[in-house]
Each structure stands twice: as structure tokens, then as C-alpha cells.
């Protein structure tokens, strides 16, 4: 019997370093299970022939995060009162360090967010990814699109210049022409019978508190359903029929193409 | 058939909801009459609902067949064998705590939500004040001349309440003065309508500025061939009748009064169309409606209720 080989000093040091690095991660994992949760979220099985098109949803999410972060920063310098709004925007653009950049990101990012939502929706539609059992996720997506549009509408007023003002007049009055509840909806949005001092803060509050909260909640549901139901194969995929590329029936990926089987606690 | 019957859901909550809706709508329509009726409906149905929901707890027999889902095949017999159980087994502590948690949570949620929702929704509808506008001496308006007049509807709010009206003194009708005062709010979607014609310096006339409680009143002389909207191209003649484009009716007008020789603007009203011109005009007037809302014809049925106006 040979005596167990003694570890070299370098080996011992490497193990100690590893343990020191792992310790906080293990500590967190033991107490919360978060590390496993993140791994479960990030390292899901997806069909082998997923497409670059299927990153459009993540791109939209990224655009939303950019909007949220730049919006929070802009809110530190923006003053939502009819007296100060326009001058505070000028201040952000001309005087606050890098203010022009953050405002520009928020302004152009808004269009990027909307455009990406449409591209993402087109991908889902053309791939048939809205079909059973993913109808609910399509519905949530439609709500997200509506909320995104509402963000665009309420955010447009905030610069409080002539374009913003009259575009919002037209937008509010468009709401006002809705049958039955239209006049009430318009009066709620205006905060009174005419656009006045209340309108801007109301739009500001809706733009930065009410709708973003709703969007975050809906995104959470959206992602939950993506994880629960899995990613769809492209329509030309052979795997979609439960087969791998050789044409032989596949047992490995059956759970992915039959999403109902997932989430029952007996797979994964 | 031994199909288990699922009891029909109680309908009282629907009546309760209707009552609450009527009470809330009543706050806008008529707080003195409609709201109490709605509150009454809500109380009656709420009582019936509560009585229904607590019937079991209070030991009354509930007229529904026993629920038999989820028991498998053997379970129905077991349920039947149990027979009339005493209150303790039928309504154990855990169910009481469950009901208490949900009930208390609902009450607390309601106590918090109702005032907050009221605060969120009602301020725009209640206490809307009419602002009278003092446009200065009537002598500033020579007979037959048009002026573009800008003023602050509510000086306390500042520039955001700046409004524009097109004003013409029509002279006397009988022994009463007659003015045509047209709002520049487009009847399509509310953009600022412009006078189609030369103003000020081109005419060789001076602008008039009067300082009243409504801030500096600017009167610009103008010779309009009509009025036009820059947003979507709605066109109107000098009486405010629609001549082209998307507007659904004529331009709104201001009611006016003359006190101590000063021209005072009162509230606004909506107009479908005007026959004739100037002092002889026959104005088909209606209660003020928002831009784009039909006030006559079959389409007026789309807007049966208006929020309270000043």
C-alpha cells in the first residue's frame, strides 16, 4: 500500500483560495437557494436549433431596463411643475454633466423599446409561438405593448414644450372621443376640465410610477411563463415533432416539445 | 346519476357591486340623490351576501348538496356516513382563522383603498370652478371689427391657462349689445384654430393691451376670411361653421355679459351650426362638450353622460 501522496503547497493554496471564493456564494445558496434559482433560470434547456430572432425578447427587456435606469436618473433633475418643467429639461441638456447623454438615451431608447416590442411580437407571430399552451403569454405581451404605448404617450408631455403640449392636447381629446366613458377618461387625464397645473404631475406620476410598476409585474409573469413553458423551436425545426436532426425519435428533448409535461414537478 | 352537484355561486355580490358602482357614478352625476340610492342598494345586497356567506357558521342548514369532488370513489360514502356533524367538526378553528384573515384583510384593504381611489379619481371632477374673464372696456371693440384676444382663464395658474378667443362687436340688436365670441379650440381634437387673414402691422393697426385681473389682455386686430386649424386641416367660416376637414361641429362660443362698460366672458357652450351672421345669427347651442364629441344626430348617443362642467 502506497501512502497517499502529499499535496503540494501550491495545490493546498489553490484549494484555500477556491474555498475563500466559494464561501460567500455557498453561504448565500445555503440560506436562500438563490444561486440554484439563477442557475435554473439561466441554464435552461432550449431546442438546439433556436434562432437569433429568439433573442428579441431579451433585447426588449434590455431596452426596458435602460429606460428604467435612465428614467430614475432623469427624475433626480426633472421638476414636474408647469413653471419649472421646461427649464429643468434645458438644465439637464445643457448644464448637468452628461445630462444630454442620459436624456438622449431615454428619448431614443423609448423608440427602440417600442420598435423591439414589435419585432419581438412579429417573431412570435411568424414562429407560431403564440399557440397552445402559450396563449396566455401572448395576452400578457399585448398588455405589455399597451403599457409601453401608454408610457410613450405620458412621457411625451414631460418636456413641456409646444410639441409636447399640443400633442398631449390632441391625445387627451382622442381619449375624450371614446364612447360613453371617453369624456370622463379625458377629464381624469387632464385633472380637470382644461389642461392646467394638475395635468403635468398626473402624467409624470403615471409615467414614472404607475405604468412602470405594471410593466415590471407583467414582465415577471411573462418570464415566469417562458421558463415554465420553455422556448419554442422555429417552425422549420424537425425537433418540433419530437425528433432530433437525424430524424430518429428523440427521448431526450421530449419534455421541451411537450411543455405541459414541464412544471409538474416531475421533470427537471 | 351520482354526479356531485357544485352549488351555484351566490349572486348577491353582483348586486353589491352594482350598488357600489351606482354610488360612485352618483358622486359625479348627482351626489344628493343617486349616491344614497346606490349606497342603499350596496347595503341591502351586502347584508344578503354576508347572511348567505355566514349561514353555515351561524348553524343554519345550507340548502346545497354536499360537495364531493376530490374524494375519489370511496369518499362519498364516508361523507354520507358522517351525517350531521356538530359545529366543531364542520367549522374547525383553522377555517375560522382563514375566514377571519380574509375578512379582516378585506376590510382593512377596503378602508385603505376607498379614500385613496377617491383621491386618485375625484379631484378632477369635483369643485371645478367657472372663471369669469374681464376683457376690459367695451370701447376697445369698435363695431364690425375682429380681434384675436388672448387672456389668462385663471391667473393663479399662470401661463398654462392662457386662452384665445376671436371677438367681433356686432353692434346693437334691438337695444342690447351683440358680440360674436368664438373659442379657438378646434372642434376636432382641440388644437388652436388660427384666423385666416392679415393681422396687426399689415393692416396698419396697433395691438391693444389691457391690464385686468386676467393678466395682460392682448387684442390683435385681424381681418379673417375664416378660421383654420394647423393640426389636421379643419376649416371654419367666420361664424365658426365647419366648411372642411374632420371637425364634427362648429366652433364653441363664449357666453358674455357687459358690466360697468366692461366685456366679461362667462362659460363656454357648444354649437352645431350657425344660420345667418353677426347680430342676426341663429346659434344652435348645446351644453359644452369636449372636442370631437358629437352633440347632435345619432352619434350623440355615444356621449350620454358628461362630467360636471363649471
- The succession of helices and strands of chain A, N to C, reads HHHHHHHHHH
Structural class category of chain A: mainly alpha
Per CATH, the architecture of the largest domain in chain A is Up-down Bundle
Structural class of chain B: alpha+beta
Poorly predicted sequence stretches spanning 5 or more consecutive residues of chain A: 252-268
Strand order of the largest sheet of chain B: 4-3-2-7-6
CATH homologous superfamily descriptor of the largest domain in chain A: Cytochrome Bc1 Complex, Chain C
Tally of DSSP helical segments of chain B:
5
Classify the fold: give the CATH topology of the largest domain in chain B: Rieske Iron-sulfur Protein
Point out poorly predicted stretches of chain B: 74-81
Summed up, the domain count of chain B is: 2
The largest contact between protein chains, plus residue counts on each side, is: A-B, 27 and 31 residues
Helix content of chain A: 55-70%
Query: What fraction of the residues of chain B are assigned to beta strands by DSSP?
Result: 25-35%
CATH class of the largest domain in chain A: Mainly Alpha
Ends apart, CA distance between termini of chain A: 43 Å
Number of domains of chain A: 2
User: CATH homologous superfamily of the largest domain in chain B, by name?
Assistant: Rieske [2Fe-2S] iron-sulphur domain
Mean pLDDT of chain B: 86
Amino acid at each position: 500500500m502506497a501512502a497517499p501522496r502529499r499535496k503540494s503547497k501550491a495545490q493546498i493554496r489553490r484549494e484555500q483560495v477556491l474555498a475563500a471564493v466559494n464561501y460567500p456564494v455557498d453561504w448565500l445558496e445555503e440560506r436562500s437557494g438563490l444561486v440554484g434559482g439563477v442557475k435554473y433560470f439561466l441554464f435552461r434547456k432550449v431546442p438546439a436549433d433556436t434562432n437569433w430572432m429568439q433573442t428579441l425578447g431579451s433585447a426588449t427587456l434590455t431596452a426596458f431596463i435602460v429606460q428604467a435606469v435612465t428614467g430614475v436618473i432623469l427624475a433626480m433633475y426633472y421638476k414636474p411643475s408647469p413653471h419649472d418643467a421646461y427649464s429643468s429639461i434645458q438644465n439637464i441638456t445643457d448644464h448637468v454633466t452628461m445630462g444630454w447623454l442620459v436624456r438622449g438615451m431615454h428619448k431614443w431608447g423609448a423608440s427602440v423599446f417600442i420598435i423591439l416590442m414589435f419585432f419581438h411580437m412579429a417573431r412570435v407571430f411568424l414562429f407560431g409561438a403564440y399557440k397552445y399552451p402559450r396563449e396566455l403569454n401572448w395576452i400578457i405581451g399585448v398588455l405589455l405593448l399597451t403599457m409601453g404605448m401608454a408610457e410613450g404617450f405620458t412621457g411625451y408631455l414631460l418636456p413641456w414644450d409646444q410639441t409636447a403640449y399640443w400633442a398631449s392636447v390632441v391625445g387627451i381629446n382622442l381619449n375624450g372621443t371614446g364612447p360613453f366613458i371617453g369624456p370622463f377618461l379625458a377629464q381624469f387625464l387632464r385633472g380637470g376640465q382644461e389642461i392646467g397645473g394638475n395635468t403635468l404631475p398626473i402624467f409624470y406620476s403615471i409615467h414614472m410610477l404607475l405604468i412602470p410598476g405594471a410593466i415590471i409585474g407583467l414582465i415577471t409573469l411573462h418570464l415566469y411563463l417562458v421558463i415554465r413553458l420553455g422556448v419554442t423551436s422555429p417552425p422549420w425545426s424537425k425537433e418540433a415533432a419530437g425528433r432530433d436532426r437525424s430524424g430518429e425519435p428523440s427521448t431526450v428533448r421530449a419534455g421541451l416539445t411537450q411543455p405541459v409535461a414541464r412544471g409538474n414537478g416531475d421533470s427537471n | 346519476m351520482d354526479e356531485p352537484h357544485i352549488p351555484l355561486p351566490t349572486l348577491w355580490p353582483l348586486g353589491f357591486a352594482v350598488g357600489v358602482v351606482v354610488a360612485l357614478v352618483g358622486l359625479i352625476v348627482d351626489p344628493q340623490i343617486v349616491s344614497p340610492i346606490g349606497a342603499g342598494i350596496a347595503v341591502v345586497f351586502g347584508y344578503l351576501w354576508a347572511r348567505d356567506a355566514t349561514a353555515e357558521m351561524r348553524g343554519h342548514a345550507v340548502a346545497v348538496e354536499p360537495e364531493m369532488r376530490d374524494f375519489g370513489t370511496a369518499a362519498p360514502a364516508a361523507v354520507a356516513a358522517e351525517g350531521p356533524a356538530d359545529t366543531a367538526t364542520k367549522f374547525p378553528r383553522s377555517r375560522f382563522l382563514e375566514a377571519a384573515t380574509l375578512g379582516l384583510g378585506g376590510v382593512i384593504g377596503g378602508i385603505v383603498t376607498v379614500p385613496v381611489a377617491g383621491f386618485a379619481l375625484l379631484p378632477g371632477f369635483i369643485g371645478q370652478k367657472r372663471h369669469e374673464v374681464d376683457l376690459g372696456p367695451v370701447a376697445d371693440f369698435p363695431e364690425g371689427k375682429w380681434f384675436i384676444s388672448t387672456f389668462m382663464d385663471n391667473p393663479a395658474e399662470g401661463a398654462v391657462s392662457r386662452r384665445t378667443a376671436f371677438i367681433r362687436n356686432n353692434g346693437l340688436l334691438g337695444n342690447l349689445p351683440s358680440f360674436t365670441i368664438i373659442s379657438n379650440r378646434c372642434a376636432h381634437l382641440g388644437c388652436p384654430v388660427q384666423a385666416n387673414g392679415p393681422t396687426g402691422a399689415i393692416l396698419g393697426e396697433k395691438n391693444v393691451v389691457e391690464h385686468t385681473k386676467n393678466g395682460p389682455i392682448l387684442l390683435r386686430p385681424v381681418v379673417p376670411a375664416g378660421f383654420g386649424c394647423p393640426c389636421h386641416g379643419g376649416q371654419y367660416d367666420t361664424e365658426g361653421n365647419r366648411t372642411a376637414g374632420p371637425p364634427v361641429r362648429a366652433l364653441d362660443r363664449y357666453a358674455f355679459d357687459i358690466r360697468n362698460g366692461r366685456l366679461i366672458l362667462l362659460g363656454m357652450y357648444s354649437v352645431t351650426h350657425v344660420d345667418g351672421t353677426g347680430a342676426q345669427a341663429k346659434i344652435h347651442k348645446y351644453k359644452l362638450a369636449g372636442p370631437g364629441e358629437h352633440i347632435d344626430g345619432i352619434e350623440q348617443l355615444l356621449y350620454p353622460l358628461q362630467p360636471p362642467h363649471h
